[in-house]
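User: Show me a protein chain along with its predicted structure.
Assistant: Here is one chain, sequence first, then structure tokens.
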Amino acid sequence: MKICLTFSIFVVYLFSCYGALNVTEELMFLKETVLLQKERIDGLQQTVGDILQRNEQSVPSDTPQLADITQREDDVVMEKSNIIKRLVPPTQSPQLQTTVAFFAYLSNTQLTSPHQVLIFDHTPLNAGNGYHPNSGIFIAPKTGVYVFIWTIRMFKQSIIDLIVNGSIYVSIYNRSYDDPSGAVGADESVTGYAIVSVNQGDDVYLRTHSAHGDNARNMFSNEFGRSTFGGWILH
């Protein structure tokens, strides 16, 4: 009985030693696996570092090529600009290019008499601010050759003068058709124009002639037909 008990204890001891050996072996295996993985990771990091270094070293060799391409593009743009400058004449400064032009018309029908300055009070366009709608006078903001044009819608006969610096430059005559029956309106429109060399500060305006008629006459202007005055600088 004593021998059997002793044998049993011995067997248990052997199994315990075997189990301890298995745990130790597993720990050693895991340790070796971790070391092997660390070596592989270190190797991969070294490989990545080598690739990055080669890429960094290759960039400077490409940079001169990119700079050369950019320079050639700039040269092409500059050459195009020079060609355009040779083909297109130089323009004047913005101050000298200021546009002078105006267009005005009567906002409603007015009575006129001889030697009356015609005041076109509504100005849709007044570039350069040369026209003065309160007086009907255009004062040239700069010297140049101007075109003036006007349309007058008048009852019966009319003579309209273009006045430049107080003197008659040109006159336009119009006589409307008189219908004895009175069934047809007796007003017509006439258009005149003139090309004038004007100095800065000169005044230009429209005025009825002395032979315009002793009696007051209507100058019509409404949605069916306007009496207008306009002008612009040629050069």
